[in-house]
Amino acid sequence: MGDLLASQYRVLSNSEIAGFLQPVIGIADLLGGTPHDWQVNDVADGNLNAVYLVEGPRGGVCVKQSLPWVRVAKDTWPLPIERAYFESEYMQRIEPFVEGRAPKFLHFDPVLHVIVMERLQPHIILRQGLIEGRYFPKVAESVADYVAAATFFTSDIANTFERKFTDIAVFSGNHGLQRITLDLIFTDPYVEVWRNRFVRPHLVAWAQALRDDVALKAAVARHRVNYLTRPQALLHGDLHSGSVMVTEEDTRVIDGEFAYVGPIGFDIGAFIGNLLLAWYAKAEHAETSEQRARYRLWILQQIRLFWERFRSRFQAHWAAYSGPSDAYPGSHFVSAAGRASLNEQQAAFLDSVFADTVAYAALKMIRRVIGFAQVADFLAIEDEHRRALAQAGALSLARELLVHPDRYRSLDAVLAAVPVHESAGLIPTDAPAYRQ
Ligand code: SR1
Ligand code: MG
Known about the structure:
alpha+beta; 3-stranded antiparallel β-sheet
C-alpha cells in the first residue's frame, strides 16, 4: 500500500494547485468563486518545501508540499517526502493546547504529501522583522505561551505513558528530518564536510578552532546524547525566528515538520539562540548607533520575557493540572509536605530545562555560522569581513556557554555575557571564549 501511494506522488506545479484544492472538502467555500478565480502564488523561501498562497474572492489558504529533495539543493540532496505527514500530525496534536498561536490545520493529502492550512495575513516572518528592526510587542510572550502549553500538555507530567508512548511511536518515524538535525546541528560544524558554508577566508581560523576543540566537542556530545535519549515532550523541533509569523498584534508558530519527542530546552534554546544571532547581526543592520543600541536592548528584553513567561506558564499549567500523570501522580503529593516537595521538584525540573536551553541556544548559534543553512540576519550584511566579525561574536559566546555551563545557571549571567563577546574578532585565541 505504501509503495502504491508513493508511486502516485508527484510534484505539483503552480498551475495544478487550484485543481488539487477544488475537491477538498470546505476549501472551495473558504476561497469563494470557482478555481478560475483563485490566484496561486509561489512563495517558497525556506530550505525544504514548495509553498503556495492561494487567494479567492472570499478568502485564502496556504498550500505546502514536501519535495523529494532539499528545495535549495534540489536533486543533489534527496529527502523523504513523509515530512508533511509529521507536520500535519504535529499541528493536530498541539492545536487543542496552543489556543490559536499556530495556523489552523485544514487538510492533509497522504498521496501528494500536501498540507493545506490557514493563510496568515498580513503576517511577516519574524526573522525579516528583526532584520528590519521592527518591534513586535507580543511575540516573546506568545511564543512562550505556545511552547509552555505544547510541551507541558504532551509531557509525562500531563499524560499516561500510553498516550506519551503513542507520540513517541508516531514521531520517531521522522527519520529524514532527524537526520538533518543530527548532522547539521550536532556534527557538521565540528568537521570538514562538503555542505558546510562559512565566510571564507575570514572564518577559516574559527572553523579550525572548533574542529580542534576537544572540550567543545565533549559538550556537544553530551547534548547530542541528551537530544537522542530524553523524550520529555513533543517538540516543534525547528523553532527559529523563521518559524514564527507576526504582526504587532498576532503571533503564529509555523513549520512543525521537524517535530519529535525530545528535551524541552531544545525548542526554547532554538528561539533564544536565534534572537541572540539577531543581536550580533544588528551590529550592521541599524542605521544609527542609537537605533542599534535601542533595538539590541529590546532583543535582550525579549529573551528575558520569553524565558520568564515560559517558566511561569509551565508552572501554572502544572499547578492547575489534575488529570492523569504517570510522572508525578497527584496522589503522592496531597499533604502539605508533599505539596512543598512537589514545588521543589518543579523548580528542579525547570532549572534543568534552563540548562538545556542555554546549551541548545549555543548549538543553534554555531550551526548557523559554520554550516549549510545560513541565516538571513547575517547574509543581509553584504561586506563579508564585517559579516564575519559579527558572526565571530556569536561563535565566541556559544563556545563559552557550552564549555562552561556552571557559569551560566541564570539568565542574568547569559545576558551579561552577550556584549562581552561582541568584539571576539577573527583570531579565536584572542576571543573571550578562549581567553577566559
Ligand atoms: C537542509 S537545510 C535544513 C535546515 O533548514 C530548516 O529550516 C532547518 O533549520 C534545517 O536544519
Ligand atoms: Mg522550516
